[in-house]
Amino acid sequence: MSQPTVPDREAPSITCDEPGSFPWQVFHVRHPALIRRLLEALPYGQAERQAFAALLRESQHDQVAALSPEAPDFELWQVWGKEQYGRPWRQQGFLWSESYFYRRLLQAGGYFGDGGWRGVDLFAPFKHAELDAPAFTGDLAALDRQHALADGERERSLLMTAVWGNLADLGFTIAGKETGDTGALAADDSDRLWKLLDGGLVTVVADNSGRELLADLVLVDHLLAAGRAREVSLLVKPQPYYISDATPSDVLDCLDRMTGAAGAAPRIGGRLRQALRDDRLRLRAHPFGCAPLGYRDMPGDLREEFAASTVTIMKGDLNYRRLAGDRLWPPTTPFAEVTAYFPGPVAALRTVKSEVVTGLDRRTAAELEAADPSWRTSGTHAVIQVATPRDRE
């Protein structure tokens, strides 16, 4: 079968080349702040500290250096990045360069080495602090109030909590953003999403750990308990990535926190644990989860999994960038058009925190741009968007 073609109206790729732009600020403001936090949180020695400093210099001023042939994922990155090596970082696509930065960050911290830092999640101090924070305790207590809602209200509450849970992103807060009251939906296909959830296989591609993962797990529990899904496949990252991205260990830590709480939380956590034992909930970590590529380039086994799903739910901003393509689309570009390659129904639940936006009606797009030109990166708006093969005919 031939691959679907790209949209006729191809948009320019987002790069880090323009001083003052959002991608430029990520590399010149957010990344230095992250490394300062890492060095405060973990007692790295001189070798690791020098490696972090060298990575910052290279990513801000120099050309992209290739991985060592001894790296365990050397062959993968030869496929994913061989055309980028030797070229300036600032000229790379933002998705590729940001992803490679985090891969190199693990290397600088000794994650792949033979020393004492091997396999240590350098973001673990931040993740554990979030699980112990008052906000997470408040989220656990809020599950009691959700449980008391009428069915329709409860489903809406669970879905919106999963959407806005994406605001609880440690990379976002490290950049100086605060997570407070939620904003407004710029697009809302929630009715279409519920109609797709008819008791089949649902794939959920998770984004962040902590508070967002809690919201995702509670939604998964409801889908299973209410018969909205026969089975759920939960895809997480195979290794630490983008500060707070969820790994299998983060899922288990979140379940432990739930089962150790009071009220509704331990009952939900217990059901999820049993669902894992019964294979009604399958925890998956695919190497492509940390690829610097869009889902258009997904491998065949992942394509088959998505094709077999009643619907694939993509959580969060990074998954949206990978789904729609990290390009400066006109915001009215149809969501179904930029996801035409996807092998089955797909839904995006995303707080808008980067420049990629599609699927807005003209009035909404115009009003948002007029009210605040920085709305795409401020986290004040979110989208629930759905596309099916029928939309793409």
TrEMBL record:
GO biological process, one term: DNA damage response
Keyword DNA-binding carried by entry: no
Domain Damage-control phosphatase ARMT1-like metal-binding: 28-362
Reaction equation(s) it catalyzes: beta-D-fructose 6-phosphate = dihydroxyacetone + D-glyceraldehyde 3-phosphate; beta-D-fructose 1-phosphate + H2O = D-fructose + phosphate
Membrane-spanning intervals of the chain: none
Keywords tagged on the record: Hydrolase, Manganese, Metal-binding, Methyltransferase, Transferase
Cofactor dependence: Mn(2+)
Alphabetical list of InterPro entries matching this protein: ARMT-1-like_metal-bd_sf, ARMT1, ARMT1-like_metal-bd
Keyword Iron-sulfur: no
GO molecular function: metal ion binding; methyltransferase activity; phosphatase activity
Assigned protein family: Belongs to the damage-control phosphatase family. Sugar phosphate phosphatase III subfamily.
Protein name per UniProt: Protein-glutamate O-methyltransferase family protein
Record organism: Nonomuraea zeae
